[in-house]
Structures are given as structure tokens and as C-alpha cells.
Amino acid sequence: MFIKRMNDAEEKALYDAAGEVASIFRSVEYQWWMSHQTLLNSFYFRGLAPWHDCVEFAFPRESITEIESMFVANGWEFKRMSPFNAKVWNPKMALHRPRFGWSWPFIDLMLYDDVSNRGIIMMEHGHCAHFTPFKRDELVDTHPYYFGPLMLPMVKRAETFMDVVFPKWRTELASAYYCHRIERLYPEPVQYEHPQELAKRFTMYNLQEQQQAS
């Protein structure tokens, strides 16, 4: 359903977690950015969509061991979920402790391969069901963009990235089907609606550009 899922304390906690992870990332020189659903939410809502409760950042896969050590040194816990995904969380920030081994809020890391000698970046999407090579200059250099109270890196050509990961994003948005706070499916079915219709009930941005593009 297209409804606000988190209360104010939960929303603040998730932004706080994203801000702390961003601070750790900024202490190194690797390219990272808002990715997947978080990128889409930033583009349309300049923050979390009201019905989402997760945040995803892209980070280079070859450097994940180094960044894992930095998280642990800063009191965070790290779990490699797959060769192309990891999860980080700080137990001291926990508002929810689902049945799995991590606490919420957490941040998902979407790990990419930077094949610089070929000028491409390989990224997974669809829960590792798909892998797509992007031209490196389509994603980097990044630029700061709104994400709630934060300013976080957005890829150079966000629309190009979203055209691949969310083929219908210009004309159809989906509500959340999963609650990450307690790791359960929502009882309601997923809904789909045009961004222009959603903008009648929620504050949204960049709609005029998409109307012209379509």
C-alpha cells in the first residue's frame, strides 16, 4: 500500500544510520553512491519514499575487506550476504531486532566491479538475478543530492541507471511488499501507480522532466 510505514523515530534512526555510513565512506577515496531503490527514492522524493524502510549504497567489491575493517573499528557489524551484497548495522542504534542475526536500522551495500581498463562498471540488480555493464562515465563522477536531512552522492546519469534497474520507473511505481524492520512480508498486496497520480498525495520532485521524456 502507498502509506507511510515508519514512525518519526524510525525514520530518524534510518537517516542517522545512513549518515554514519556515509561518514565512514567519506574517510576513504573509493567511489560510492546511492543505489537501486535509494537512488529512485532520492530522485522522486529527495529522501525515503514513505513506504520504504531500507537504504542501499553502492561500493566497489574489490575494496570490501578494507571497509569491513573500518566498520568493525567504528562499532558496526558486517555480514556478507552474497558475493555482490553485504549488510552493515550498529547494535547500539537498534530499534528492532528481527529474527535474523542483524538489527534494524541497517544499510545494504550493493557491490560493484569497476573494470577500469574497459571503462565499465558491472552492477547486479534483481537480487543478483541480473548483471549489467554500465559505461563508467554514466555513473561517475557523482554529485551531491538530497536524501532527507543528508546530501549524498548521486550517479552522473541517474535516469540511465534507473532505466535498467527499474524499466517502468517513469510510468509506474510499486509500493513496498516487505517490512525490513521485522523481516516480514506486509499482509497487503503490492500496488502500482503512475508517479503523477502519487504526486497528488505525496510531495514529489522531477516529475516535469519525466513527463517531457515520456
Descriptive account of the structure:
The two termini are 25 Å apart. The protein has a single domain (8-213), classed as 2-Layer Sandwich (Beta Polymerase, domain 2). The chain has seven helices and 13 strands. α2 crosses α5 (158-165). 29% of the residues lie in helices and 27% in strands. The protein is α+β, with helices and mostly antiparallel strands and 214 residues long. A hairpin with a 4-residue loop joins β6 (120-125) and β7. The strands form four sheets. Strands 1, 2, 3, 4, 5, 6 and 7 form a seven-stranded mixed sheet that branches. It has a two-stranded antiparallel sheet with strand order 8-9.
CATH class: Alpha Beta
- For this structure, the quaternary state is single chain
Largest β-sheet summary: 7 strands, mixed
Kindly identify the CATH topology.
Beta Polymerase, domain 2
| Total individual domains | 1
What structural class do you assign from the helix and strand content?
alpha+beta
Radius of gyration: 17 Å
Average pLDDT confidence is: 95
Sketch the topology as an H/E string, one letter per element.
Answer: HEHEHEEEEEHEEHEEEEHH
